[in-house]
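2 proteins. here.
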Amino acid sequence: MKEPKTLQEAIVYFSDPDRAFEFACKLRWPDGKVFCPRCGSEKSYFIKTRKLWLCRGCDKQFTLKVNSIFEDSPLGLDKWMIAFWMLVNCKNGVSSMEIHRTLGITQKSAWFMLQRLRLALQEKSFVKLGGPGSEVEVDETYIGGKARNMHRSKRERLSRDGGLQGGHDKAVVMGMLEREGQVRARVIPNRKDQHIRPTIKEFIDPGTILMTDEFDAYNRLGGEYVHKMVNHLERYVDGTIHTNGIENFWSLLKRGLGGTYISVEPFHLFRYVDEQAFRFNTRKDEDGTKISDSARFAEAMSRIDGHRLTYSQLTGKDQSPRHEATGTGNTEIPF
């Protein structure tokens, strides 16, 4: 059977446990050399009846899921694959309630599953944006509740205190978009210089032409960058100087947060930002050709290795003195 190109084909394709297992193996070990995730040894033999390997180096068994986002999961790969396909290919994201209804699992399991998948989508590239002569748009946005949705008493209190102005009590996300290139986005504590400037230096090469709005922090970057500014009080486009590209990314991000996820806690916000950045960066390839859903899914699946997120880490319970670390449990299904 041919590899899936659409969601309908993916559901049929991954419903076969053997096909799902072989597909995941090919993406995790593309050269066909299976190595132990614990000791790195390539000497092992496969136990076909149980779909696991026995390492000759450390003399321990391991499955496809060990040291990946799937580790210790009792859910089969058929459910994981469909959830991953929907997450990376739905333009505005997919909620845990939708995964719960679609896959027939609990909402809690669906939420945990999606957070583990988002971990794999985080951008780990050390390649900076821009370079001499390249143009990068830089902007920041506030993420938080709207005044019209607040209780009247809270809205009146914040209005008296001036809290409805300047993004009071809202999270700040800073974004950098290279024109005809990729986007980088990061949640920062506030819009002060000590957070704006280090973030720019971390993600953007010196000599890059920066396109920003009139925010004062961008005027104190020194001589490392060529700074061009458009004053939004006067106009939004001044020739080639504008930030419309990164504003487009903010529109997509907020549409997903406000329309799909509804309520996102600030300490989980970075996960949803990384998710949207992945979809944005995989719209087209280097030649400008539109990337298919199957190619985007394959790219996401290639990132599952080396990521591990437990429920206690996700919820902060691992900080409790009573917490006990766990390894691969007996509930894990190897395929």
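next one coming up
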Amino acid sequence: MSNMLSPLMIGLLVLVVILIGTFAGRTVRRLVPRDHLTEETKSLVSVSMAVVATISALVLGLLISNANNSS
């Protein structure tokens, strides 16, 4: 039974971490001066997020490939 709850607990933990990150981001945005919230900065953040997403997808793909090869 504990194995069945483990993925649920991990999912809930991930949800809580994402929500905490969201609220922290909203709080920090209020503290950042207006001149730092330009279109150039937003573009830089978007490109950075795209790089992180691409690397995450690559790591996930390698992880799945490794799991398929080991079984």
